[in-house]
Amino acid sequence: MQLAKYALKRLGAMVLLLLGITFIVFCLMYLAPGDVTLMLIPNVPTNEQAEILRKQFGLDQPIFMRYGRFLAGILQGDLGISWIDRRPVVPQVLDALSYTLRLASVSLLLSTTIGLIAGIVSAVRHRSFVDETIMTVCVLGISTPVFVTGLLLIYLFSYRLGWFPTSGAGSWKHLVLPAITLASFLVAYNSRMMRSCMLEVLGQEYVRTARAKGLRELVVLGRHALRNALIPMVTVVGLQVGLLLGGSVITETVFAYPGIGQLVVSAIAARDTPLVQGCVLLTAGGFILVNLIADILCMTIDPRIRFA
Amino acid sequence: MNLHGKRLLILLALAAALVLATSPSLAQQPRAGGTLTVITPADISTMDPHAGYGFSLRVYANVFEPLLRKDEKGIIHGHLVESWKFLDPTHLQMTLRKGIKFHSGTELTADAVKFTYERQLNPANPAVNAQFLRELNLRIRVVDRYTLVLETGATTAVLLDLLAESIVGLIQDPGEVKKWGKDFGLHPSGTGPFKFVEWVRNQYVKLTRNPDYWGGAPYIDTLIFKVIPEEGTRVLALESGEADVLFETPPSAIAGLRANPKLVVSRVPTFRDLNMHLNTSRAPTDDVRLRRALAQAINVKAIVEEVVTPDVGVLSTGLFNPTVFGACDVGFPLYNPEKAKQAFAELGYRPGRDGILAKDGRPLQLSLLLNPQRDPRNPEVAEAIQAQLRSFGVDVKLRLMEFATYAKMLASAEGDYDMAFLGHGITTGDADSKASHFTRANMPPAGLNVPRYSSPELDNVILAARQEMNKEKRKELYCKFGQIYRDQVLGIALYASIRTTTTWRHVNGMVLHPDEWYPQIYPKVWFGPKN
Asked: What is the dihedral of CA B260, B263, B267, B269, to 10 degrees?
């Protein structure tokens, strides 16, 4: 009951938050120099021609009218029509989101499993050769720019070895290289995070108590240490889910992967306001939802965290 | 050259002749089959030519066709039209080829042409690129099933060039347009050598051969345009064999690709050229003496040779790429460091303590506006100009803007720039498309007269050239146009663009056309054996 009430309260806040986001995006798109007619008309539009297009898109109306009409549309579940290709926004965004979700889930799976295992191993074998090696690899992972990792992987596995396609989407093979690219950064981040959380917990008195009770090391680590060390990790991974949902522009661009990141960047460049709004609204909604789920998960793992 | 070198040359020539004579590719007959994959940096926006822009245009030409077409040598041929004649300077009668069918099976008739042009010009919803047709004040009269008469508002020397232009006159299937309405872009039907199969957003467009194509069915079965936004990935996709054709090869990759014997790297002249225009509408560049001093201070030749490199562009001596009709050497570049120095001094500019020239306490600071993406070496060229002008004491601020902002600034009423790069891609291959920007009528915000200069003399020359039917006289008028631009130093000519295209060696029958957009059509392409 308490949980339901908490979730409802958070969902209410989410609506307000989304409203604020749409307003900010609307203002930013309004303030950005240039408009969609510059992109649509080759060379430079004659004024008359641009006016016809502006009228079609409602760009001749005052900003508050336009924003009001946009909000009215949302209430009817209609995010409008893209100005560039004159097709409805929602299916386009959902399509791109589905690609992003696929990529995000694979790379998240990779980055959490490998990251957690590497972190735990480093913590348990603290200051050993294994620890040093893992941490060195992590520094490399964090500090290599994604496009470098991406292009190196393409060079090696697509061009030299021919195992995977260089770019595109459609089959599981298309997912491998972009997923590894995205994960390489997150693995590094997660394992460092996991290591420090684990080290902190391992220094706690209840761990010493557990060992003193004569529990097997595996039980000490698994039941007593890990469960406590995981709490901050849930929040971190939850944030990463949100980040991945927003699409990773660079990885998607390098691999020509048709996700939401590429869609929103091209929409911004074309000043296609309805499409930008659609992308931002749906990804922001997803981000907030995932964070809510992460918070609820945290409470389930750690009963000490209470609903506030 | 010494005797030894000469002998070597002769030997090489003999060897080359031998190779050519015995080369299997000469004896080979074109083979049918295969999938040609062409890389495109950005996705199409729709398959409906009414609303398409940017890279969409490269796909359209395979599905839709115009009445006339200009070949890579600049000669106009009848395409859907069998013959044409001018009844008088403003009436053009055209006769369509008989028996041409749209992909839907309907026959192409004069009514379809009229329908397409009127759809493009529909005042309530004009085609995004209807501008050319609109300027012609076109009226179309159907005489019979295969004959129509086009009436223009005024005598236009470039009427045929415009009709052969790569964007606007692609004939669409009226039955299908009416049937699908707004969704025609998802169900396109034209007369072209390829039929539309599918478009997967941000991934690829797939076309299949039209076995009934009136010009002879294509050899290849499937034509794919694959979207790859990242430069490095494009190169690797080509090299790994996932794609067969890469237009606009990144300059940094050219040397590596040339070294690969399986690939052919071709330098293709284009209709495009790049200028740096100077803003004549505000101080200090409103003074022609200062504009001339700036032009004399920039060593364009060195920049073109060292920075631009021959794979991207060659030195311009006039305002048009030499491939364009009307191109004329007007004596660019104007580089003359002695005179530049002298001119700055005569204008009253004295170097300040920081080395920057100043007059009446105001330093000589100029802004240079550019879009880094459109021409590959833009930022580097701008930096070179900045460094060269700095050595004369002129302080240049570079303003690199993304495209929408850049376009807005160029076309804004205020014109907040002193100097601006502008590439002119001429789709007609005729000087008029570029020259007409420099009229009074095209002063921003109405048009793209970037130097913001106009004079009755300049207007007269441009308009006279547009109406002059005698080719030699037209050429002279464009020379005159170039001379006025040079004398007034409305800017400087930087370079004539080269496009470097890379294909696999076993891809035969590619036509590399100077028009960047349109004639990338593949009805005669076939695959030889891969080795």
From this structure: -160
CA–CA distances in Å: residue B325 to residues B110, B131, B149, B465, B519: 30, 21, 26, 12, 18
| Residues in chain A closer than 8 A to B428 (CB atoms) | none
pLDDT digits over A268-303, tens only? 888 888 899 999 988 888 888 888 888 888 777 777
Q: What is the DSSP letter of A225?
A: I
Task: Determine, for residues A34 and B237 on separate chains, whether the beta-carbon distance falls below 8 Å.
Answer: no
Quick one: angle between helices A89-124 and A227-245, nearest 10? 150
Q: Looking at CA atoms only, how far is residue B241 from chain A in angstroms?
A: 8
A167 and B445 within 8 Å at the Cβ level: the answer is no
Using a CB–CB cutoff of 8 Å, tell me whether A270 touches chain B: yes
Q: Is residue B411 less than 8 Å (CB to CB) from chain A?
A: yes
The residue among A155, A307, A185, A189 whose CA lies nearest residue A248 is: A185
CB pairs under 8 A between A and B: 137
pLDDT digits (tens, 9 = 90+) for B249-265: 998 899 999 999 999 99
**Would residue B175 be called left, alpha or beta, if left means φ above 0 and alpha means ψ between -120 and 50 degrees?**
alpha
Task: Identify the bridge partners of residue B194 per DSSP, sorted by sequence position.
Answer: B209
Q: pTM for the full model?
A: 0.84
Which chain A residues in 47-76 lie under 8 Å from chain B, judged by CB atoms? 47, 49, 52-53, 56
Reduced to 3 states (helix: H, G, I; strand: E, B; else coil), residue B292 is: helix
Å between B405 CA and nearest CA of chain A: 5
Q: Left, alpha or beta for A64 (phi > 0: left; psi -120 to 50: alpha)? A: alpha
